[in-house]
Structures are given as structure tokens and as C-alpha cells.
Amino acid sequence: MTLAKRGHSRIVIQALRRISHEGASEQGAVNWATSEVNRLSKSTQTVVALNIKGKHFGDITVDGSRMIINCKNGYTPEDVLSQFLELSE
Known about the structure:
This protein is α+β, with helices and mostly antiparallel strands. It has three helices and three strands; from the N terminus they run H-H-E-E-E-H.
């Protein structure tokens, strides 16, 4: 899976700028981008409990530009989506 599809489009853009403006090689830019993603992923990720109406549906983790919801306590992604839709009405 590409870095951009994994939510790291800003790093990909910076790598492209390194090629076009700084004369970096394509492989050098790829190596730099990969190391940046690895460096960022090693940083502490915040995990927040997802409680809706007093029920713990799961945990939310931020990964780049994505928000990952890990369902808990027997709840499914459909259950969580249903709760979000209900809250947004």
C-alpha cells in the first residue's frame, strides 16, 4: 500500500519537493519518506475511549490523517456507525 493511501500525503508531497527543488534522487526521497513515516508511527499515539450514551463502544486511535475505531464489548462497526448517525440528527 502506498504512503499516500495510508494517510501520509503530506510526507509524499514533501518528498516530491525534495526531488524537484533540492535535486534529491527518487530513491533518496522514498527512503526519506519511509523513515519519516516510521519516525512518526513510533511516537506515542493517543487512544481515547469511545463512549456514547454511557456505553463503551470501543477505542479511537489517530494514525496520520485517519481515525481508527477499534470496536469493543461485542459492538460492530455497523453499531458504531448507527450511533454516530443517531447523534448527528
